[in-house]
Amino acid sequence: MSVYLDYNATTPIDPRVLDAMIDAYQNTPGNADSRTHDFGDSARKKVEAGRKQVADLIGVSSDEVFFTSGATESNNIAIQGLLDYAQTSGKKHIITTAIEHKAVLNTAKYLSEKKAFKVDFVNPDQSGRISAEEVISLVREDTLLVSVMHVNNETGIIQPVKEIGERLSDIGVLFHIDATQSCGKLIDELRTLKYEMLSFSAHKFRGPQGIGALILRRKNYKLPPVTNVYYGGHQENGIRPGTTPVALVVGMGKACEIAVSENIENEQKNKAIKEEIIRLLVESGVKYELNGDQDYCVDSTINICFDDVSSEALMLLTKQLCALSNGSACTSKSYDPSYVLAAMGIPTEKIENSVRVSWGPGVEEKDVVNNFASLLEMTKSLAI
Ligand code: PMP
Q: In angstroms, how far is CA 73 from the centroid of its own chain?
């Protein structure tokens, strides 16, 4: 059977998360905002319990957690929600990176093309990392926002958001972090970061699809100047109106709780799998390179360029062994050479030969070893 090694696209829901959600669907029929009956009260209690579990994972307080439909929406609200403040403050300059997810990239492009913002896109070097120094050097009088992802979804490279956050907090510039690929994984590091806004989705760490959160940090009790981009009810402080999906919140909360309690074990397993993949690569005699500096890479992702082997052909031929990807799922429906690898200065021929392998809790090391070894054997037949 094929081993699912595309965790950076989405992860299989944890059965304990599913159980908690089924219980909520079956036994909590109320609307969390209904004040007139007990069904509403018990739904509200579940939502607030879920919010607390999310807050505990991130290391913030519950009133800094705002539920959304996922990271795409969180990123949009975090950035577009600053439009009013940009008008009143006259600050219309944004700094971001060329390797962000499209939810950040395209939002920044929209502001630049339609709302007269100036946007600087910082490129990484071959290591896959951007330079904190370069980001800070671009800050101007009218800089509204800096938005940088914590971990890149294609390469797994950890960006210097710790350093950037510290420098920006000294000079008082708003900082948004897209933590979609680190949330539930780099738990300790995430808790020490300085930022005003942080986005993520539950389905990247074995929670349900269709829910995520935007964290808005309070300073002297005040939230960052994000205003609503939708009009509707007062749910989530008006930041994200619409009926709160109780069972999804329960599922996300449970996934957060599990991520915290099993963090050390998950880290060890992820690391062991990565070591095995590298061992197999080395021993196979296949010619390859790893994209990005592995000293900065998470233990749950590896991006491999196989010399003279087309990634499309490789993935097609070895489908029954491993589920891999090239590019992110959001762009991989039609094949376009990865803009992330291109921004790192990797030539197109090498990008076309690169695949992303990503894993996490639920993946068994022995399955990876068996199937990846067979995949490498098949790879040899494809080299031109
Ligand atoms: N940011 C990053 C870094 C991601 O990897 C993803 C998902 N690929 C997103 C944002 C968007 O998440 P979602 O599709 O859950 O909205």
A: 12
What is the tens place of the pLDDT at every residue in 5-26?
A: 999 999 999 999 999 999 999 9
Could you give the CA distance from residue 215 to residue 58 in angstroms, rounded to a whole number? 9
Domains of the chain and any CATH numbers: 3-11+263-382 (3.90.1150.10), 15-257 (3.40.640.10)
Any residues with Cβ below 6 Å from ligand 1, and which?
Answer: 70-72, 101, 103, 149, 153, 178, 180-181, 201, 212, 328-330
- Residue 167, helix vs strand vs coil: helix
Q: E strands of 137-192, at which residues?
A: 143-149, 174-178
Handedness of CA 378, 316, 294, 275 (dihedral sign): negative
- Spatial CB neighbours of 168, under 8 Å, sequence gap ≥ 6: 136, 139, 146, 174, 175, 194
278, with CB counted inside 10 A (0-12, 13-18, 19+), is middle
Active-site option among 256, 297, 305, 330: 330
Q: What is the mean pLDDT of residues 367-374?
A: 96
Is 183 tagged catalytic?
A: no
Give the torsion through C-alpha atoms of 159, 163, 166, 168, to 10 deg: -70
Q: 164 Cβ partners below 8 Å, 6+ apart?
A: 132, 135, 136, 146, 148, 175
Q: Which residue has the higher pLDDT, 380 or 197?
A: 197
Q: Whose CA is nearest to atom 7 of ligand 1?
A: 9
